[in-house]
């Protein structure tokens, strides 16, 4: 009897070792290796050519001979979802959606499936986690009709392939990829080999037949998508569904998109009837702001092509311990440390013996440089115990020498502030030329951090 050959595969990165290793030399993670049987090459695995429903295989072609027809995207009823994808769903694309358990991934895709079904799109909803009756119960709660939507509770990839071949849908939802098994791969469900093989199958189905495939992916404790990193490289679009379990707002963010921008985000409100779009997120983030509160500053941040007004809050208190604390929520902690060092060196604020706690209100995460001025103003406001003008907002990047540097899309930012009733905005001095400020708002250019603090905290 021939000896069964085995190998050990890292669940995080897919690194293969002939023996067990406690520490992966490729990704550096610990205790991630699992034993797998070496797969013998079978006839089904050998014939991996891309083939459509008609049995036609792809062939090499000259570029000049390729027939190209520009396919228009098909839009859903969710403008937020369309924005994140770059203007709608591209036929034949493979879209991966990840997020924490219970955040609303299945709810989002069930609502999107219902919307596409009402547009005469044929949908196949495959679930490896729920029965058909459970999905039907959730669909009734979400008021999803689904006249052209098929429910298929199945975990076998061979059976799913046959169902797709028989129904020939316009879009397929796989919920989730970690619960589907490939019968030709001899390893546990959810393993690296299984996830890679299933994703390759789904990609072939999407590209050869023009079927849009939505795939739900689990995330690890660190917040990244479970499975090998190649999973994200294989798909066309990677979306993360984020949010705080203690708040009802959810943020859909693109981290990879072959057909659009990766800077866009969509904001939803989780209610009893499902996910509702938030048309004007700036009003949501500012509605609970206290007037004349010290340590508060408003910034106009750009998320893709959308300007969003967010309140940045700071609390500066004398340090009890030897080393001052720097804690930030929704803002990069290293950015906060740099800005506080600039405040101490260039603006004369003695912050080395002060604890600082900063937060972007509403649970949103801000990463762009244009938030620097608002962060600095909020820290200075709390330190000096002076409130900022509630009708004033701040835009600008701060350099290490204390200068206020220009930012992009200043006209859109100022226009959004004017729409929400703000009367004055502090912007970089070098951003004043080349455009005309809208009526009803005063635009003030500042060159240095000290100048901005003096104007904001009169």
3D structure, described in words:
The protein has about 450 residues and is of the alpha/beta class. The chain is built from twelve helices and 21 strands. The protein has helices spanning about 45, 80-85, 105-120, 130-140, 155-165, 190-210, 230-235, 280-285, 335-345, 370-385, 410-420, 450-455; strands spanning about 5-10, 15, 35, 95-100, 125, 150-155, 170-175, 210-215, 235-245, 250-255, 265-270, 275, 295-305, 305-320, 325-330, 355-360, 390-395, 395-400, 405, 425-430, 440-445. The strands form five sheets. A nine-stranded mixed β-sheet has the order 6-5-7-8-4-9-10-11-12, sandwiched between helices. Strands 13-14-16-15 form a four-stranded mixed β-sheet. A three-stranded antiparallel β-sheet has the order 2-1-3, with no helix packed on it. The longest helix has 18 residues, at about 190-210. The radius of gyration is 26 Å and the shape is globular. The N and C termini lie far apart (about 85 Å). Mean pLDDT is about 85; it is low at about 40-45. Belongs to the RecA family. RadA subfamily. Keywords: ATP-binding, DNA damage, DNA repair, DNA-binding, Hydrolase, Metal-binding, Nucleotide-binding, Stress response, Zinc, Zinc-finger.
């Amino acid at each position: 009897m021939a000896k069964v050959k085995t190998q050990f595969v890292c669940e995080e990165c897919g690194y293969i070792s002939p023996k067990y290793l406690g520490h992966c030399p490729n990704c550096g993670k610990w205790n991630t290796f699992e034993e797998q049987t070496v797969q013998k090459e079978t006839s089904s695995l050998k014939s991996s050519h891309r083939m459509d429903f008609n049995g036609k295989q792809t062939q090499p072609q000259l570029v000049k001979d390729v027939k190209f027809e520009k396919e228009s995207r098909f839009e859903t009823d969710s403008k937020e979802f369309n924005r994140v994808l770059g203007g709608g769903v591209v036929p034949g694309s493979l879209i991966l959606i990840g997020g924490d358990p219970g955040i609303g991934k299945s709810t989002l895709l069930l609502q999107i499936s219902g919307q596409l079904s009402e547009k005469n799109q044929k949908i196949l909803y495959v679930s490896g986690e729920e029965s058909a009756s459970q999905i039907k119960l959730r669909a009734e709660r979400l008021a999803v009709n689904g006249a052209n939507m098929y429910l298929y509770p199945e975990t076998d990839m061979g059976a799913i392939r046959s169902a797709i071949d028989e129904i020939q849908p316009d879009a397929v939802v796989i919920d989730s990829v970690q619960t589907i098994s490939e019968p030709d791969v001899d390893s546990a469900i959810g393993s690296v080999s299984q996830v890679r093989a299933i994703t390759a199958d789904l990609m072939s189905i999407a590209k050869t037949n023009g079927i849009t495939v939505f795939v739900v992916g689990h995330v690890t404790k660190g917040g990244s998508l479970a499975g090998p990193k190649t999973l994200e490289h294989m798909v066309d679009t990677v979306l993360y569904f984020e949010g705080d379990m203690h708040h009802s707002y959810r943020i859909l963010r693109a981290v990879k998109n072959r057909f659009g921008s990766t800077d866009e985000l969509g904001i939803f409100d989780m209610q009893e009837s499902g996910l509702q779009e938030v048309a004007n997120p700036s009003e949501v983030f500012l509605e609970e702001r206290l007037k004349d509160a010290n340590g508060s500053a408003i910034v106009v941040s750009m998320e893709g092509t959308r300007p969003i007004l967010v309140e940045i809050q700071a609390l500066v208190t004398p340090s009890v311990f030897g080393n001052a604390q720097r804690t930030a929520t929704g803002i990069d902690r290293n950015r906060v440390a740099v800005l506080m060092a600039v405040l101490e060196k260039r603006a004369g604020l003695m912050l080395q013996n002060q604890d600082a706690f900063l937060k972007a209100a509403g649970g949103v995460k801000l990463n762009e440089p244009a938030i620097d001025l608002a962060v600095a103003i909020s820290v200075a406001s709390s330190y000096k115990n002076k409130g900022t003008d509630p009708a004033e907002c701040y835009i600008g990047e701060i350099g290490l020498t204390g200068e206020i540097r220009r930012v992009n899309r200043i006209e859109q930012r100022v226009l959004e502030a004017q729409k929400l009733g703000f009367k004055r905005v502090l912007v970089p001095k070098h951003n004043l030329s080349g455009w005309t400020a809208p009526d009803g708002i005063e635009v003030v250019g500042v060159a240095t951090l000290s100048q901005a603090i003096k104007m904001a905290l009169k």
